[in-house]
Specification:
This protein has 13 helices and nine strands. It has 331 residues and is α/β, with parallel strands linked by helices. Helix 10 crosses helix 11. The protein starts with a helix and ends with a helix.
Amino acid sequence: MYETFYGLNGKPFSLSPDPNFYFASRGHQRVLSYLRYGIHQGEGFVVVTGEIGAGKTTLIKTLVNELSGDTDFVIGQIASTQLEASDLAESVALAFGVSNEGLSRSQIFNRLQGYLTQRRLEGKRALLIVDEAQNMPYSTLEELRMLTNHQVGDRQMLQACLVGQGELRARLQEKRMEQLRQRAVAFCHLGPMSQEETQGYIKHRLQRVGWKGRPELHQDALDSIYSETQGIPRRINTLADRIFLVAYLEEKEMVDRDLVTEVARELAEEQPSASDESEAALAGTQKMVSGQGEELMEQRLSAVEERMGSLEKLMDCRSLAKALIQSLQRT
């Protein structure tokens, strides 16, 4: 839509992580340097954390692109969605393309070990990248630590890179994670971009798709985008994409602060407010409580009915016994 109108050869603000749009902010470059260092150590864990939308996945994809041209590396990737410890070996095997159909867990583990041992004997290094690692149960993290303990000679067979949100960082500080934490050769956190970097990021992405200055971006618009997004790449992409769409629909040749404010307000209105979520939660609770109350009342009524039935039977028995006694007395 707006790409054709403004003479762009692609979508500049896609939400899908794309290393072709990697922007070397100070924070991103620092984390990438830590990753390179940690991975070339060939041992232990590399841990990358950052808030939602900070650009972690784009960063990792950029690194994978770099390493894909290095024949010394074999790379496997998994996304942790509450992965259980008992399923870890199977997931890791699949990540490296190791066939395990119809095999038991012990057979899968042995086949994976065989694969990793062979790669190490060939002089290759196996790197496992675990995305969304904050979702991993403690037992699975411990299982992963044990899996990376195996060596061929004095060389580690498998190195792991854990990528996750800030919760991962907090979890690794807990006492029960001390052994894993001690084996982290690089530990880095990806924060938001500065105001200057945010402006550079926007222009960088536009230039990647052939932007020639249409529409013109007024300085106050760039300042306003930073204020609205606080330098978080995903937020910037969401807001900027909508700004360009509205600018196209209104055939604007300049993006200014007013347009940014208008679009930011629209996006905010589309998101459920905290009060809406609270009301929805309260309504759900009330409905649940109401349902439980009705169920409890039915149970009580059933109990009363049973008791009434028992009483009626008892009264009938008493009446029968009384009549029998009177009959015996007459005789």
